[in-house]
Amino acid sequence: MDRDTEDVLDAVGPRLRALRRDRGITLADLAATTGVSESTLSRLESGQRRATLELLLPLARTYDIPLDDLVGAPRTGDPRIHLKPIRRFGMTFIPLSRRPGGIQAFKMIIPARPKPLEPTPQTHEGYEWLYVLNGRLRLVLGERDLTLPAGEAAEFDTSLPHWLGSADGGVVELLILFGPQGMRAHVRSGSHSGIDHEPSGPTTRP
After folding, report:
1. Residue 137, Cα to own-chain centre: how many angstroms?
2. Beta strand pairing call for 153-157 and 195-197
3. R_g of the chain, CA atoms, integer Å
4. Which residues of 18-41 are buried (b: 16+ CB within 10 A; e: fewer)?
5. Which residue has the higher pLDDT, 102 or 161?
6. What ranges does the record give for the region Disordered, renumbered to this chain (predicted)?
7. Pairing outcome for strands 91-95 and 127-134
8. 58: Cβ contacts below 8 Å, ≥ 6 apart
9. Residue 64 to residue 86: CA distance in whole angstroms
10. What is the rounded CA–CA span in Å between residue 37 and residue 149?
11. 3-class SS letters over 63-95
12. pTM score, two decimals?
């Protein structure tokens, strides 16, 4: 095995541990989701066990990231980003960034609905920035109920109750920047037609 390959494999464990902690997932939860035992996951993260395809595939599926990103394999030189839409609760999230952990960029699409949904505000850790590309976004932040047309942006502390949905029942497309905590809350918990977000001190920008 050459030195470059060894370096890649040596970095897998710390990368897996950092990714799991960024997502706020325990070893027990990860074991239950992937079917890989806690002891194996722990040894994999500590470098006491070498990564194998059999172990990495369920982890890549759980984290919903490409296998080469999970391993940290060198780029092939192809500058294209292969987008993989994530569909949850009738909404579509399109990842625009590749690196696990840290700030994540997504395009989000809220589908048209003939009957508007009632807001169900949620909260989570973090800070969020969004920009409306198309449509009219309804943004409920704490006690405030805002309508943002295309071209407007907002940023807010997600520790405040927040919710995103269509203001008029039409399709809404927006760009969102948030960290791992924000991504987990938005992708894994929703209210069918709207989007659960958490606001605290919202600032809107034209």
Report:
1. 20
2. unpaired
3. 19
4. ebbebbebebeebbeebebeeeeb
5. 161
6. 187-206
7. unpaired
8. 33, 34, 35, 36
9. 9
10. 48
11. HCCCHHHHHCCCCCCCCCCCCCCEEECCEEEEE
12. 0.52
For the domain made up of 3-71, the CATH class stated in words is mainly alpha
Where are the CATH 2.60.120.10 domain residues in the chain? Answer: 86-187
CATH 2.60.120.10 fits 86-187, yes or no: yes
pLDDT tens digits, one per residue of 61-113 = 888 877 767 776 555 455 555 567 888 767 888 877 765 556 778 889 999 98
What mean pLDDT value characterizes the chain?
77
Which residues share a beta bridge with 105? 177
- When pLDDT is cut at 50, 70 and 90, the band that residue 60 belongs to is confident
Residues of the chain with CATH 1.10.260.40: 3-71
**Is 138 a residue whose pLDDT tops 50?**
yes
What DSSP line would sit under 14-72, residue for residue?
Answer: HHHHHHHHHHT--HHHHHHHH---HHHHHHHHHTSS---HHHHHHHHHHHT--HHHHHT
